[in-house]
Amino acid sequence: VTCTEALLGEAAACRCPLPRGDCPLSRLLRRLLSARRSLEICLFAFSSPQLGRAVQLLHRRGVRVRVVTDAQYMALNGSQIGLLRHAGIPVRHDQEDGFMHHKFAIVDKKMLITGSLNWTTQAIQNNRENVLIVEDAEYVKPFLAEFERIWEEYNPTNYTFFSKK
Amino acid sequence: VTCTEALLGEAAACRCPLPRGDCPLSRLLRRLLSARRSLEICLFAFSSPQLGRAVQLLHRRGVRVRVVTDAQYMALNGSQIGLLRHAGIPVRHDQEDGFMHHKFAIVDKKMLITGSLNWTTQAIQNNRENVLIVEDAEYVKPFLAEFERIWEEYNPTNYTFFSKK
Known about the structure:
2 copies of one chain form a homodimer. By secondary structure, chain A is an alpha/beta fold. Chain A has a single domain, classed as 2-Layer Sandwich (Endonuclease, Chain A), CATH 3.30.870. In chain A, 33% of the residues lie in helices and 21% in strands. Chain A has helices at 24-32, 49-60, 71-74, 81-86, 121-126, 137-153, and strands at residues 4-8, 38-43, 64-69, 91-93, 103-107, 111-115, 130-134. In chain A, a hairpin with a 3-residue loop joins strand 5 (103-107) and strand 6. The N and C termini of chain A lie far apart (57 Å). Mean pLDDT of chain A is 86; it is low at 8-19. Chains A and B meet through strand 1, helix 5 and helix 6 of A and strand 1, helix 5 and helix 6 of B.
């Protein structure tokens, strides 16, 4: 284990709209912004403007960003998904009844960010949440493989369209 | 790292009402049922009858079980929380506007079970989910400390009651 950090959400610690100093959100942002080459994001719900801006910044810096999300939640008010797509970031979503309920990201194929936290302002400010940050390949690899599997499965060219006979 | 397993939810693998053979739910049950002394559970939503029965069985075997959950979800239809309380298992819940959104358990103070999975039939059967099982103290300790902190904070004797003047 080369790097581990458990961010256990003190709700009150993150009420600042722009994170200053050391709070769970600022630590999460710092890890995210360390990306140099690639960022895979697999999130049930993504509405945090700060995390959305960080992802757009990485995209502008040339980091290869890919996003997988849940179809039912991506169109909700305040979702960042439309903004990310508008910025040119590829987004794929499920076509299933169940939820795409993962909440993880992988930085440069070597750092896994996972836990209970959806990237929403509600969750960051008001909920009890945990985020685990891990650089051990034993943990990162199965999540990366799962991302690639879902990414292919949610490829729009694989969608099945039903039409009336 | 003495023991690690990433259970990445193949929804279809767990549609059996009683898990047979090797599926993510049967592997989760096996880890849970390995408890000999203590089991801390910190779950946003708990409605899976199989997991509920496993927890009750551990309680009957003399394992010290403690449950923390979310107040808004514990009274929902199908919740296991009432059954656990009825069986004599101590349960504490938040009194907050935000959600107690953790989804983790700790077996014998040395095995952490965490991830995106709420212990619900919906999540087990229909969602994309992940469960990380870790025995590395570096990961287990902060979660155990968080459980103890929340357990004390949610002690009913600490509740504040507001009354009209």
